Amino acid sequence: MSLAMAAIAMASPNPLHSSLTLSNARGRRSFCTRRRTHSLKISGSSLADGSALFQAAHYTVNTYIKSGMVIGLGSGIASGMSMQYIGLQLGAGALKDIVGIPTSVASATEAAKAGIPLGHYDDSSQIDFAFDDADIIEERTLIAVIGRTRSQGEESIIQEKTTLNAANKLVFIVRENQYKSGMDGSIPVLVNPVNWMETAEEIDDLFLGDAELWRRPSVGLAGPHGGQFPLVTREDHKVIDVIFTSPILSLAEVSMSLDNIDGVIEHGIISKFPCTAVIASENGLSVVDNVPKNAVKEP
């Protein structure tokens, strides 16, 4: 289906920024800024979940990737579909001179299978575009959570976030039920292995009554201490899953709070501007950008 048939729905004409006053369970006030969003609706016939992600992956490649680009390659089902399609485009000559920067061991393996030439990230790397799956995305802000379900020690939230943040443009490919407000669930937090329990106690005090803390295991069932085989990342960090039992009012506030705790190395919250969410549903695709008002082109 051509984009000419797409119906463009503009976000409500709110100011570019609006201040929000939020309260948590302990009555503390926090402030964050919402960015005005631009949305594009691409409707189609009813699609199964896998077919919708397939369409979203192809849309992402066709819309954003051009020959000669350096591309950050994400991790997950939709990212794998995107890499397979990039490989087909390279084989057909529709794309040329592409270099992929993997965000994980899994994405490097998938890219190699697809025939995508790979490079390595360093501080001087220039990444034109990146795509990734996300576990969940906050409505409007497009702040995302990654790393919820990956338990392999060789994977790295640090590598994934560094690569995504270095890109000039970032797209998350998600299902409709992963794009929401008032979120719950877990946020992975990497902590220094030295005195990690003290760090965990400080995190627990910060979110007292709102979340539970479990140290992630490498095998077997999880538990507060990670069972007999707690996961250790390849950078030698422990992984604490902060499991929210109350709705998360602001991922930006949670991110800032975690950043201010001694012993926290990194976490699974990523905020990127500019950023786009390609949202797959059985009725088609929705494309949402967190672009400033003066960058939105009226139809």
The class by helix and strand makeup works out as: alpha/beta
Mean pLDDT: 81
Shape label? globular
Strands across the major sheet, in which order? Answer: 1-4-18-17-10-7-5-6
Give the SSE string: EEEEHEHEHEEEHEEEHEEHEEEE
Number of strands: 18
Short account of what is shown:
The chain is an alpha/beta fold and 299 residues long.
Task: Provide a descriptive summary of the structure in words.
The structure is a single chain. The chain has 299 residues and is α/β, with parallel strands linked by helices. The protein has 6 helices and 18 strands. The chain has helices at 49-64, 77-92, 105-114, 157-166, 196-206, 251-259, and strands spanning 7-10, 17-23, 29-35, 38-43, 70-73, 99-102, 129-133, 136-138, 144-145, 170-175, 179-180, 183-191, 211-215, 238-248, 264-267, 269-270, 275-281, 284-289. The strands form 4 sheets. The chain has an 8-stranded mixed β-sheet, with helices on both faces. The protein has a 4-stranded mixed β-sheet with strand order 11-8-9-16, with helices on one face. The chain has a 4-stranded antiparallel β-sheet with strand order 13-14-12-15, covered by helices on one side. Helix 2 (77-92) runs parallel beside helix 3 (105-114).
